[in-house]
Amino acid sequence: MRIAIGSDHAGFELKERLRERLTGQGHQVRDFGPASLDPTDYADIAAPLAEAVVDGQHQVGIVICSNGVGVSIAANKVRGARAALCTDTWSARRAREHTDCNVLALGSYVTGHALAAEIVDAFVEADFEGGRHVRRLAKLAAVEAKHSEPQTDLLDEGHERQAQAELSPMA
User: Fold this and answer.
1) Active-site entry in 9, 58, 65, 86
2) Largest Cα–Cα distance in the chain?
3) Model confidence over 16-34: pLDDT tens digits?
4) Distance CA 142, CA 113 (A)
5) Which CATH number describes the domain made up of 2-131?
6) Dist. CA 79–CA 150, nearest whole Å
7) How many CB atoms lie within 10 A of CB 72?
8) Does residue 98 have an active-site annotation?
9) Sorting pLDDT into bands at 50, 70 and 90, what band is 171?
10) How far is 45 from 8, CA to CA, in rounded Å?
11) Which is catalytic among the residues 9, 27, 86, 98?
12) pTM value?
């Protein structure tokens, strides 16, 4: 299977272990980074990874941050990505079987390495069941299409000033 994997700095160690494991199982794994423990913003990894999955370059993706929430939000901003934050094997399997999720999100601070490996196996080995779930996915696609118009007012004024200050070369 063609698998994309990436993390922020908090998920780096788990990403490395999972990448090595998946490669050892014979999967083709593309590492979206980071290459070190240097601070990395989760959106800078999760969004391009989700785009590559949606574009068909990879069959599934795995994104990791400290709790899995940031990477799942970032991946789900990509139209066509269906990222699921899973903390157990049943949820991971079900995410693929019923919701045809194409990106698995994990939290490295809340999920141990052994359990994370089992969750990844369950996600990778499961297949979409189709049937009644196709109708439900069509409804999700309709919601996504309705709400995919560009948003320019996502940050309130205080967050916008803070973001601009952090991006400023004088900051």
Assistant:
1) 65
2) 56
3) 999 999 999 999 999 999 9
4) 37
5) 3.40.1400.10
6) 12
7) 25
8) yes
9) very low
10) 7
11) 98
12) 0.85
